[in-house]
Specification:
Order of helices and strands: HHHEEEHEE
Mean pLDDT: 80
CATH class of the largest domain: Alpha Beta
Number of strands: 5
CATH topology of the largest domain: Alpha-Beta Plaits
Structural class: alpha+beta
CATH superfamily of the largest domain: Ribosomal protein S6/Translation elongation factor EF1B
Number of domains: 2
Largest sheet: 5 strands, antiparallel
Length: 183
C-alpha cells in the first residue's frame, strides 16, 4: 500500500506542481493588473453616472452653457495672444502685418516682401509670400519657430541661405499660408 501511494505521489507530483504554479501566476496577474483596472472602471462609471445626473437636471443646462462659453472665451483670448490680434486674418495685408510683427520679435527686418496671387483650394485659400532678409542664423530660427505658433497652417516651400558677412546670412524664404474657407 505504501508503494502504491509513493508511486501515485511520484506520478502526480509534477502535474500538481505545474497546476499550483499556474494558479499562483494567475492570481498574481489578477492582483497586479486586474484589480487596479476594476477599481478605475468603477471610479469612471461613478463619474459617468454623476455627469448623466448633472446633465439631466434642467437647471444645469444654463451652467453647462456658461462653462462652455467661458472656456471658449479663454481659448479665443489665447489665440488672439498668439496671433497678435490677427487670428482671423484672411486678407493679404493682415497676413503681411502678422509676418512683419513676428519678424520684428525675432529681430529681423525684411529687405523684400513679395506677396504672390492667392489661390483657392477645395478647403483652403493659399497665400504664397516671398520674403528676403539679411539676418543671423539664430534670428532666422526664432522667426521660423514663431511661424509654427500661428493659428493658420504655414508651409515653408523654399529656403535659400547664402553667406553675406561675418555672422550674417542672406535668406530667401518662400512660404505659403493656408486659411480655411468658411463653411
Amino acid at each position: 500500500m505504501k508503494e502504491t501511494l509513493l508511486n501515485r505521489m511520484e506520478h502526480e507530483f509534477k502535474p500538481f506542481l505545474v497546476v499550483s504554479a499556474a494558479v499562483l501566476v494567475a492570481l498574481f496577474a489578477a492582483y497586479r493588473y486586474g484589480i487596479p483596472q476594476l477599481h478605475e472602471y468603477l471610479e469612471n462609471r461613478q463619474k459617468l453616472v454623476s455627469y448623466k445626473e448633472f446633465i439631466s437636471q434642467k437647471d444645469n443646462e444654463a451652467s453647462i452653457r456658461e462653462s462652455l462659453k467661458a472656456q471658449n472665451d479663454r481659448l479665443t483670448a489665447k489665440l488672439e495672444d498668439i496671433s497678435y490680434g490677427l487670428a482671423n486674418a484672411e486678407e493679404t495685408p493682415d497676413l503681411l502685418q502678422m509676418l512683419i510683427t513676428k519678424a520684428r520679435n525675432a529681430d529681423i527686418s525684411f529687405t523684400r516682401i513679395e506677396p504672390e496671387a492667392k489661390t483657392h483650394g477645395t478647403d483652403f485659400i493659399h497665400y504664397p509670400v516671398i520674403l528676403e532678409m539679411s539676418t543671423r542664423f539664430h534670428s532666422l530660427g526664432k522667426f521660423i519657430a514663431s511661424l509654427e505658433e500661428m493659428p493658420q497652417v504655414v508651409r515653408v516651400d523654399r529656403l535659400s541661405i547664402g553667406a553675406e558677412a561675418a555672422n550674417k546670412i542672406n535668406v530667401l524664404l518662400n512660404i505659403t499660408c493656408f486659411f480655411q474657407l468658411e463653411a
